[in-house]
Design goal:
mainly alpha, disordered N terminus, single chain, 407 residues, globular, 56% helix, three-stranded antiparallel beta sheet, 20 helices, 3 strands
Length: 407
């Protein structure tokens, strides 16, 4: 991927830089009109200055509702002027997230891929991208961006994860083997290697890699080992994991799997490999698709985002201010800058579906496997039946068409 070089950007004169700093301070404080009044003359005096365009775009992004398309135009122009700067692309992604739906998701994905290509460690670009829908096409686009940073440990690790998701196992294993050698004390590469081997049915080699990862669980700051298994954890186990000291988490996960071992006399825990294969199959068949996964956010968050009708007497303005963590502006006509405090822009309270990006069928498949019987009543409803040792389990799935959609 070739970088398109933008024109050389001279350093800003001191008064101009001071003006940008003042406008940014007003934006951070939530005083949008004052920030706009400070930024507009700067943008007029230097119409090709990317910093001024980015700041003006950020102000429009924070503006309630109608500023988002103006922000997109400003940030797109800034990106053309300074194509090697990740900042305008990062805020373009924010615009896409605010817009929502398919159009907004596409804007956000494209922009974040560009950010990662320019600087894989830029802010929370990678973490934000992982919250969006990703099919194989989206995965391949991000892999190409990460290849530009080969030999960078985080970039190589993220690329290996995506290669496993793409089922490009030989390439993933080669990359993970090099990461294991380069990071002897880190469990993450070993955890991904175990996943790749389990998905291919190579349970003996996978179990060895997994045990080596558990030996290093205290260093699992990203909680990769927990994220691999949390979809089948009970509420009590979730609470217990949060209370467990990092040094004891390896023992916690060994006990977690010992409780699920169907044959203690067998040399390998068959449930362990079965879990990873179920999870891979669920992600292939039942991944959440955008934009309907907004339904899986909390009811309060959906109300704030406009996806639910409000109960009579519900003070939406107060809810917005509480979630956003913003201070009320001084002027009576000053718009409320939802999200300036950062809380509204964070993932917020979510349902369990968003953890692994699965609809309810995927969650049930991971926990119980393929049903013994499956009845499809219509395009919008089906029932799965399981004959379990403790009795028959029936689960009916019905597709919703109101309140934001979703299953």
């Amino acid at each position: 991927m070739a970088l398109q070089q933008g024109p050389a950007i001279p350093s800003a004169p001191a008064p101009f830089a001071a003006g940008l700093s003042r406008a940014e301070s007003l934006l951070d404080a939530g005083h949008l009109q004052a920030a706009l009044r400070a930024a507009q003359p700067l943008a007029r005096s230097a119409p090709d200055d990317p910093a001024a365009l980015i700041l003006l775009g950020r102000i429009r992004l924070a503006w309630p509702v109608f500023g988002r398309y103006q922000a997109e135009s400003l940030l797109t122009r800034a990106a053309r002027l300074d194509s090697t700067n990740p900042a305008p692309y990062y805020y373009l992604a924010k615009v896409g997230l605010k817009l929502g739906d398919d159009e907004g998701e596409a804007i956000a994905r494209r922009a974040l891929v560009r950010v990662v290509f320019l600087d894989p460690r830029y802010r929370d670009a990678w973490a934000t991208w992982t919250t969006l829908y990703r099919g194989d096409g989206e995965r391949r686009a991000m892999v190409r961006a990460l290849v530009a940073h080969a030999a960078s440990l985080p970039a190589d690790l993220w690329r290996a994860e995506l290669l496993v998701e793409l089922r490009s196992y030989p390439e993933a294993e080669s990359l993970l083997d090099s990461l294991v050698a380069a990071t002897p004390g880190d469990p993450t590469s070993r955890a991904y290697l175990a996943r790749a081997l389990f998905e291919q049915g190579e349970d003996s080699a996978a179990t060895v890699a997994y045990e080596h990862a558990l030996d290093r669980a205290a260093a699992d700051t990203g909680e990769v080992l927990w994220r691999q298994v949390r979809s089948i954890a009970t509420p009590e186990e979730r609470d217990a994991f949060r209370r467990t000291d990092a040094r004891a988490r390896g023992a916690f996960l060994r006990l977690f799997w010992a409780r699920r071992d169907p044959d203690l006399a067998a040399p390998l825990n068959q449930r362990l490999g079965e879990h990873f294969r179920r999870l891979a199959e669920a992600r292939r068949r039942y991944a959440l698709l955008q934009p309907i996964d907004r339904y899986h956010h909390s009811r309060l968050r959906r109300a704030v985002l406009g996806d639910l009708g409000l109960s009579p007497g519900l003070d939406l303005a107060a809810i917005r201010a509480d979630i956003a963590g913003v201070r009320q502006p001084r002027g009576a006509d000053e718009p409320v800058a939802a999200g300036i405090g950062g809380r509204l822009d964070s993932p917020g309270e979510e349902t369990l579906n968003l953890e692994d990006g699965l609809d309810d069928r995927g969650r049930i498949l991971v926990r119980y496997g393929e049903p013994d019987e499956r009845y499809v009543w219509s395009l919008d409803a089906e029932t799965w039946r399981y004959d379990l040792p403790e009795g028959r389990l029936e689960v009916t799935f019905a597709r919703r068409t109101a309140d934001g959609g979703g299953d």
